[in-house]
What we know:
Blueprint: E1 7-14, H1 20-36, E2 40-43, H2 50-59, E3 61-64, E4 76-79, H3 87-94, E5 98-101, H4 105-119, E6 123-127, H5 133-139, E7 147-150, H6 153-158, E8 167-171, H7 177-190, H8 204-216, E9 222-226, H9 232-243, E10 249-252, E11 268-273, H10 279-292, E12 294-301, H11 317-320
Parallel strand pairs: 1-11, 1-12, 2-3, 2-4, 4-5, 6-7, 6-8, 9-10, 9-11
Amino acid sequence: MAAEKPALQVLLCSPRGFCAGVVRAIESVERALALYGPPVYVRHEIVHNRYVVDSLRAKGAIFVEELEEIPDTTAPVIFSAHGVPRSIPEEAARRNLVALDATCPLVTKVHREAEIHFRRGREIVLIGHAGHPEVVGTMGQLPPGAVTLVESLEDIEKFTPRDPANLAFATQTTLSVQDTAAMVEALQRRFPNIVGPHKEDICYATTNRQDAVRKVAPVVDAMIVVGAPNSSNSQRLKEVAERAGCPRAMLVQRGTDIDWQLLDGAARVGITAGASAPEVLVEEVLDALAERYTLNVETVSTAEENMFFPLPRPLREDRAAE
């Protein structure tokens, strides 16, 4: 007779997984494939998730890092949810490419606010991670030197503005709420006149997912975050779990990535997913756990989400029928 599987209580964080901006970006690629037929070119991974990218590639999407990789074509080119520097749509227009912008509206909001600050003569400080596509896109809205990136409290202490009385700040949308609060505080302490965003830049989905993890992390032995290693919001969820008192936290892309040694002796495990991770991968992780444990699954919900963003105008049903 097979040995009885040990019991494991699983606390599923809610909200988790896809946010409205990611849903819109993926639907943009699928709708473009339906309207125009393959191939559809996508600049940069549409969202940071290998599973999503591979499934879209199988349907006829071709992912490129730069526009120069795209031949002269009448096929549409989609810009990813993270946003792009201003030079990219300009280059697409110069080449007469059919460009479709799937930038998340909450990222676009940061772009617009940065432009307004610039027009008002303010120097802009951007809190974010160097090299992340969203940061590259935001800094690329304005001329070189208009935006200074700060990644740490040390960066803020070293920052010397041209005019301390004429500053504004913005933040990457996928950062840790706690980290950013400390950095904003440091900026405001050094530069009391600094102008902040009209409404907080960190998006509702990032905040909600971190809140759910903060509630679950202190009462579990381990936390599994489903997401990609290059996904900023997924990495932040792992950090938030560790800070909230969870002794063991791991970031996995799929059920096969689980580090079973980290679950040794665990009686309660929390599970969440980054904003670009599909629910099918959460189910895969649960299936992997169920092979070794007898699961008792409970959902811990901290917010209801009903945010919806319409598709880019050329892809909407009413336009497509014209």
